[in-house]
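Hello K.,

You asked for the raw outputs rather than the summary table, so here they are, unedited. I folded two proteins back to back in the same session to keep the settings identical. This is the first:
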Amino acid sequence: MSETARLDRPRSIGRRITGTLAALCLAVTALLATGSAATADVTAQANVCGSSFALIDSYYGSGNGHTAVLRLYYSSTYKQNCAVMVKTNQTDHKDQVGVQIRPSGGTVDSENDWFYSYAGPVYTPSSVNMSGKCVDVHGFVGGAFEIFFQIEERGVHCG
């Protein structure tokens, strides 16, 4: 082996290591950025009803490759319930997402449209004290001509 060949070998290995480390650093940076965005999204959803509302239940559904969770909140300060329908995958495009809430047998508050991530928040009427009353919640995810799945819970959280 010539003197030139021996000198080139370490440089070649060094370049491969440097290139691999650079690619690894980029991958880790991308992963951390994605994790931070996901954490921010979860935090935003937790506070979407208002700071006095606490999560009291989650109902999960899936269909046609989509998944979502219908979240139900309660505020002991305002004696009100709140609901949000949150897509948990395929948030890179808009789907029909809807959510409804009402005191059992009462007036409905609803929202549905084309959303990337969630519909809501919707609230039980402020004129109705929900302590001791049951609540009905409904959520769905769909496309232009079909509903992929629905989640419906009637007469829940009556305490």
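The second followed immediately with the same parameters:
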Amino acid sequence: MEAENRVLLVEDEAPLRRSLEKFLEWSGYPYDSCSSARDALVLARSSKYDIIILEYHLPDANAETLLRDLKLVSPDMASIVLSEFDYPAVSRKLLTVDVRSFLKKPFDVAELESAMISASSKQSAPGGKSEWEQRLVLDHSPASILLRELSEYKYC
């Protein structure tokens, strides 16, 4: 992984946010984190981020709305959306904004690491569609994502 990629983490569930912060720290990513769309916009206006990891449903906005606002501030920022909601319903809404990866909760840290590498590459898949968009179009099923039994990343 490339440590020069600065990450903005937006997650309102404190235990998961702490676990993701540990993952980013151990992986060598410089990051800032917050729990709301409002705070994310404040941080994005004051610092440059290469990647954003965000929960789809935040207390004050959803990912689609926040990403539209963030793209005005930082148009090149790659995004990874996390959600416990129905994969097809949420991901179809996200087709209108540039989302690099979509991870359904619970997810494995290896899946997040893969999404981070993909976001870091800033390359689109053939046809300009991300891997999750191709899965959605091809088989309409959620990615098979398993939660590892790593105690430092476990959450409910």
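The radius of gyration is 14 Å.

Happy to rerun anything if the numbers look odd on your end.

Regards,
P.
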